[in-house]
Amino acid sequence: MIHLPKEETKLMVAVHGWSGIVLGLLLYAVVLTGMVAVFAEEIGAWSAGHVETRSAFEKPIDARVRALVPRTPAEFRDDVNVFEIGDHNLGVFFHRHELKPNGEPVDRGVYYQLDSAGKVENELRGTGEEVFGPRNDDALSSFLVDTHVRLHVPNPWGLLLTGVLGLAMLVAAISGLLIHRHLFKDIFTLRRKANPVLVDRDRHSVAGTWSLPFAFILAFTGSFFSFFGTVGVPIVAMAAFGGDQVALSEAVFGSAAKPDPTPRAIGNLDRITADAGQRAGGAPTFMTIEHFGRADAVVTTFHEPGPGDIEPSTLVYNGATAAFDREKPSIGTRPSAGGTLAAIMGPLHFGNFAGVLSKAVWFGLGFAMCYVTLTGLRLWLVRRREDARSLDWLERATTVVGFGLPFALLVCSVAFLVTMPLGSAVFWTPTSFVAACLATIVAGFLMANARLDRALQIGMAALLVALPIVRFATGGPGWGAALATGELAIPAVDLALWVSGGWMLWSLFGQRRSVRTADDFALQLAE
Amino acid sequence: MSAKARKWIRVGFAGPGAFIIALVIMAGMALWLPQGAAQIDNLVLPLVLFPLIWAALFFHACLDGKRSRIALVAVGLCVIHAGLVANKFLSKPAATTPAATHEAQS
Fold first, then answer.
1. What is the DSSP string of A201-219?
2. What residue ranges in A74-145 does DSSP mark as E strands?
3. Is 80 exceeded by the pLDDT of residue A388?
């Protein structure tokens, strides 16, 4: 434990409070959507009714990719990215590398979206930024991830904003550790019969102390991701390569193979995916083909971390012969401290290194952090309630954001379920979110804070219970159909929604009952 | 110097100062860190460590009782790293823009 002198401790308490007050509500928005985004894949399958469980890479892809070559202009056949979209279908992006006038690398080409039969469902042309957007069947999960990553603020400002929020969280986590005089005692202290402020303080302290290491990891990795492309890469490229970001990328990710532009047909991709699946213990999640159609073609497959490992695995194949070449680190051509550290940032941030178990732990700790942020704000306000009446607006804002944001997310989930079968989910998912936010803000002006607080909680509980019913009523697959294909995400998310909705309703109306019982008891005593 | 001015100096070093100096350190680190086995540590580690460098500068500016020492450490680190970057540019000036270089190569 760290024992700071009294003055420094007071300063750290102020830093801890103000870091939360200045950016707390925005931080809450990022943490809440991040917590939900941990299960973005499962939520995507649940919301779109996806029941296919076999990866697109476990099915034949070679003929499908080869069939796209004649319809792709030769200028875009330099490199190819192959990945999964929708219900384990295939997305293929033929592209070439270009540079923006400011020196930033960009990929331009043709993006094919294939259906389950391998036919081209959609063809988009442009840069990566232009063609990779939300689709009708993943509008909800894309919306969640986009809110978390950049709060819908245009880049680079959105990433810079979330990066600064990450730094604020880092400050809150470290100062939170420094101000704990009795760290181990605080982990277990919950005085249930003390006055309500002390009870809330204990709960804040317990949740905050347990999630301190997690808050530190999330803040560190989150601000790394936000600043990596926006300021980090340009600055390091400027210092080491005179601003040439392509040279930096080549040095970090490039292969050491000797260039050979002799035309040569690409090797059998099915052989590569089958071999890669065996070596890595699971199908690839992403595949890149560099120098497509040349003798020096290189195929790289990316896999999730294997059992007992935290670093994702990457396999390299000779593109022309489809022969296995080597296993390489995710970053760099040989294992190194910097490469390993950078490679584990993703799994540490996303919590996907041990499947559903680690995701569930990350979700739970994310919930604890939301609770800590919200109760921290409320405790700060309670402490100042008698001194400054002018802080009423902040109390109201805390309610509007604290409960209004999850309420609006649930409203946009309902809107997604209703509009996805109509093909207009890309428009209605964000629109309904904005409408629900505006309605909550207006209610914040018109209603008393306590009433608004309760109304939003009842609204959230009702929507949580209603969501599985809406999903089924709008044509979503039932549990039988989902379980028959082994898609556990659908019944699991349905159950989670019902349990949380039921728990909220029980605690809301249970609270009222206990308050009424206490009032009756007081009346009896008075009589 | 008034107490208010001293407070704002501390706030300046902890806030915008820490951010700008962390960026300069990130640039300079790429030039003195060892390259490691894969020849990339000097490029990757500054990117990974940026949030921690910022946090170290922030908490030093908050907790060090001597303002002169805060200024000395922050400005010293900034000058050393900015000097390394300047030296790199002065000793080997960039001939052209990155976009033009890339186009010429391809």
1. HHHHHHHHHHTHHHHHHHH
2. 79-85, 89-99, 105-114, 120-127
3. no
> For chain B, how far is it from start to end, CA to CA, in angstroms?
59
Interatomic CA distance for residues A474 and A140, integer angstroms: 15
Kindly state the DSSP code that residue B95 receives in the 8-state scheme. -
User: Is B102 within 8 Å of chain A by CB?
Assistant: yes
Candidates A120, A46, A132; CA nearest to A90 is A120
Q: Average pLDDT of A207-224?
A: 90
A298, containing H or E segment: strand A298-303
CB contacts of A15 in chain B (<8 Å) are 62
**By C-alpha distance, which of A496, A495, A490, A494 is closest to A52?**
A490
Chain A within 8 Å of B104 (Cβ-Cβ)?
no
3-state secondary structure of B86: helix
Give the ranges where B13-106 is alpha helix by DSSP (H).
Answer: 18-32, 41-63, 67-91, 98-105
| pLDDT of the residue at A390 | 66
Break chain B into its structural domains and give their ranges.
Answer: 3-105
What average pLDDT is seen over chain A?
88
B75 touches A at CB < 8 Å:
no
Distance CA B67, CA A493 (A): 54
What CA–CA distances, in Å, run from A396 to A20, A22, A198, A452, A457?
16, 15, 22, 9, 15
Predicted confidence band of residue B104 (pLDDT cuts 50, 70, 90): very low
Q: How many pairs of residues across A and B have Cβ atoms under 8 Å apart?
A: 132
ipTM, two decimals? 0.85
The token duo for A221 is 């990795």
Percent of chain A with pLDDT over 70: 94
The span from the CA of A173 to the CA of A321, in Å, is: 51
State the smallest CA–CA distance between residue B18 and chain A in angstroms. Answer: 11
- Select the residue from A97, A167, A178, A245 to test the B interface by mutation, using most B Cβ atoms within 10 A: A167
What's this model's pTM, rounded to 2 decimal places? 0.85
Asked if A331 has any chain B CB less than 8 Å from its own CB, the reply is yes
Asked if B47 and A333 come within 8 Å (Cβ–Cβ), the reply is no
